[in-house]
Amino acid sequence: MRELSVIEAVREALAEEMARDPRVLLLGEDVATLGGVFRASEGLLERFGADRVIDMPMAELGIAGVAVGLAMRGMRPVAEIQFADFIHAAMDHLVGEAAKMRWRTAGDWTVPMVLRTAYGGGFRGGPYHSQSVEAFYAHAPGLKVVAPSTPADAKGLLVAAIRDPDPVLVLEHKRTYRAIRGPVPDGDVVVPIGVAAIARPGADITVLAYGMMLHESLAAANALAPEGIDVEVIDLRTLLPLDRATILRSLVKTRRLCVVHEDTLTMGLGAELCALAAEAGVLDVPPVRVTMPDLPGIPVDDVLEDAILPNRATIREALIRLAAATPAHAAHRRSYDAAIPQASSVIELALPEEHTRAALDAIVAACRAVPACNASFAWTGIVNHAEIVVDCDFGPQAPARGGGTITLVDYGPQGAELAVPFVRPGQTAAVRIGAVRNGRAYVACSVDHRAVDGADAGRFLAAFEAALGANRFAESVHAG
Amino acid sequence: MKRPERERAYRALSLARALDERMWRLARAGRAHFAVPCSGHEAIGAGYALAMRPGVDWLSPHYRDLAALLVLGMQPRDIMLHFFSRPSDPNAAGRQPYAHFGSRRLHVLSLQGPQPNHCSHGVGCAWGSKLLGDGSASVIAFGDGGAQKGEVHESMNIAAIHRLPVVFVIHRNGWTQSVNREREYATETLVARAAGYGMPGIAVDGGDVEAMYAAARAALKRARSGGGPTLIDAQCVRFLPNTSNDDDTRYRDRSRLESEFATRDPLVRARRLVSAKFAAAVDAENALAAQDAADWAEAQPLGDPRTVAQHAYA
After folding, report:
1. Domains of chain B, with CATH numbers?
2. Which of B11, B116, B172, B263 could pair covalently with B142 via S-S, beta carbons 3.0-4.6 A apart?
3. pLDDT band for position B262 (cuts 50, 70, 90)
4. In angstroms, how far apart are the furthest CA atoms of chain B?
5. Domains of chain A as residue ranges with CATH
6. What number is the ipTM of this complex?
C-alpha cells in the first residue's frame, strides 16, 4: 500500500472530491495561489481554476458565513481557517448558524459545509498558533467534529465530511501533517464519521486519544509492554458525536481509563469522557487525565512548551500509576481523605538515626496507654481495636499498604524534619517521625477529631516518648 | 409602476398592516409569545419583493419583512402559524419565535436570532447563483443597527470583490431598539459606505413603495447582468416599539411619532396609488383575512415532545 504524509492525504482527498463533485469548492486565506500555508491545496488552483479554489480576504467570520450560505444554496464548500486559534471569529456561524440550521427549520434548510483547520502545539507557535479548540465545538449539537491522526483517516474522514449532509469541523493536528506518514489505500477512502478505531489492542488500561497525542500514547503503550502493562489505545477519530459503544466496550474489558489530550484540563474533552465512563459504572479505579494544565496559552519558549504539553513520558508515568492503582472497593484504606477533621500534636525528643524497631514498639505501648488512638471512626460509632497493627509508610518507595489500625510515617533521613501526617480513612491516628538532626527529631501525631480529643494526641505522644525511653533503657540493660 | 403593480403593492402593504396589528394585539393580550411589528417598514420589503422574481431570486430577509414575505408567496395562515409557534409553521416549525422567517420553497433564507448573520449567508447564496450561472440574484436586508456589525463589512467586501449578484438593503429607521442613530453611527445616512466597497449606493425614501421598487429594480438588473452588488439605504420610520417586549416611551417621544403618521406612514402614502374604493375594499378584506388566519392558526395543535430531537442531524 502507498505511504503518504497526513498533508498529502488531505490534499488527495480535496483533489478527488473536487474531481468527483463539481459543487465542491475551497475557500480560505492563502488557499489558492500559495496552496495553503501548510500546502493542503497545493496545485488545486491550477487544476480546478479560480472559481473553485478561492483566496478569501482576512475575514474568518465572513469565510464561515459565506460557506454557510454556499452550502444552503446547494454547493459543497470546504472552508479553511488557517490556524484553529483564529476560528473563534467564525464561531457564531459554526455554532450559532451551521449547527442549528437543520434543526431550527425542521430540515427545510441544511448546511452541508466543511470547515478545516490546523490545531495543536509542539512546534513553537506560541499562544496563537498552537491551541486545541475542540472542546468549544464538541459542545455544539448539530455540528460534527472529527480529528484524524493518521494519513488514512485524514483522507477518509475528510472525504466523509465533504459528502456529509451536515456541517463538519475537521481538526487537523498540524504536527501530524509532515511528521506522520502511513499507508493509505488506493481508490475511494471513506472513514465513517462517529466511529472510533482501536489503534492498539490491550487488556489492562484504555487510553482515549486523538491527534498527535494518539501517537504519543501509542509510544507510551508500546514502551510499557515489556513491563507487563498491556494498554489498549483508542483513536477517537470523531469527537462529536462520540463513539460511545467502542469506548465502553473497551472499558468493560480494561476497567481503567486514561484520557490524553493537548487541550487544557477543566471542561476539556476528558471531562466528558470520564463522565461517560463514570455514568456507565465501568471503572475499577478513578480515571486519569493527562492534559495541558489550565493555562491561557502555550508559550513559545522551547523548554516551557515541552514542559506543559503531554508527551510519551508523562503519559507513561500516568499509565504506571493507573496500573498500580488499587480497585475502588479497597482504595479507601490507603488513600487520604482531606475531609477528615484532624487534630495534631508535636513533640521534640532525642532519637538515634536507627530507631525503627524502638519506635514501632513505642507506638504499640502508646496505643495500649491511649486506646482511643487505636480505633476506627464510623458514623455508627467508634470501634476500638483489640489488636494493634502498625502500618508503616517509609516513603514513596515503600508507602503504607492500607492495612493496620494505626500508621507510622517515617521517611528516614530523606524526609522533612517536621511534617504533620494525615489520618488514613479507617484509622484514627497517624504518627510521623521527622528526619533526625543532631540526635533529635520531631514526632507528630494526628488524630481524627471526630473520634479523639486533641489532647489525646498529646497524651499519645507523651506515652510514646515514655515508652521509647523505657525501651532504650531495656535495650541498654539487655546490652549490659 | 403600472396599475396592476400599484394594486399589488397596496394589497401587500394593507395585508401586512392587518396581520401586524392583529399580532400586536394578540401578543399584548398574552395569547402569543412575541410580536415584531413591521409598521413603517412595509414599503421597503414590498418594493424589492415586487422587483424580484418569486421562486427565482433569493431573499435574506429583515425581521420586519412581513410585506416582502407576503409578496413572495407566504400565506397569512403561514404567518400566523409562525406567530403562534405551531409545529406546522413552514418558517421554523415552532422552534424559532416570530419574525425568524424562512422558506426554501419561496427562496427565503432562514433568519436567525443574532442580527444580521444572514448577510454572509446571502452572499454565499449569491455566490452559488454566480457559480451555477442560473441568473438569479439575491436581496439581503438588515437594519441600520445591524449595519454596524463586522458581519456586514465582511459580507459587503466579499460581495464587491467577486461582483456577486447582490442587492444590500438597509432598513434605516434610526433606532437600534432603544439606541438612537447618534450612538450607532456618526454619519447622517449610510449610503456613502457603498463607495468604500466599490459599489454604487442608492439613497431612497423607504416610505415610498414606488421609489423603493424603482431602486430595487435598477439594482437587481445590475446584479443579474454581472455588474455586482448595490447598496440601497432606505430610510423609514419605526412607528411601534422594537418588539412586544419593548416599552419605547422610556427612550423616545411617541407624540412626535404619531404626528408623523399621516405624512410618513407607507400605507397612508400608498393610498394615492389606488382608488379610494379599491383601498377600502382591500383593507376590509385583509382585516377579515388576518382574523381568519389568527383564529385558524391558534386552533392548530402545539408540538409533540417526541419530535423535539428530530432534525438535529440528517
Report:
1. 3-300 (3.40.50.970)
2. B116
3. confident
4. 53
5. 2-184 (3.40.50.970), 197-331 (3.40.50.920), 342-479 (3.30.559.10)
6. 0.97
